[in-house]
Design a protein that fits this description.
Radius of gyration: 26 Å
Mean pLDDT: 85
Order of helices and strands: HHHH
Length: 119
């Protein structure tokens, strides 16, 4: 009976996994670093889209004579569209693979520098 007088509603007990999940949720959704990281990720994605668009647009403009030759030979628009989409996929893969490897390397470097992380 006397012990119940000292317990309040603002005290919570968590397991280790629950505590880690609660802290990660706080960092990702409420802290300034979570906002900055989300904003940086979004801006990086948008910049990547713009760069791929610009490279693809420049390449299509540089090969306009070849596309005109294909059209004069009787190729359909769907074939030319397929060629452009194929090039876009190739560009995105050639950009995605090195950037993923770079990000994984930087993550491992950051993790190795973390002394008190508990990982």
């Amino acid at each position: 009976m006397i012990l119940n007088a000292y317990l309040t509603d603002d005290v919570r007990a968590y397991t280790h996994e629950e505590y880690v999940e609660k802290e990660l949720n706080y960092i990702q959704n409420r802290s300034p670093i979570g906002f900055v990281f989300t904003l940086g990720t979004t801006m990086g994605f948008i910049v990547g889209i713009v760069i791929v668009y610009q490279v693809l647009s420049t390449d299509v403009n540089d090969h306009m004579a070849e596309y005109a030759t294909f059209k004069a030979m009787g190729y359909q628009n769907s074939y030319l569209l397929f060629v452009v989409f194929e090039e876009a996929i190739i560009l995105s893969i050639f950009g995605f693979i090195p950037s993923t490897l770079l990000a994984m390397g930087l993550y491992r470097l950051t993790l190795s520098q973390c002394r008190d992380c508990g990982f």
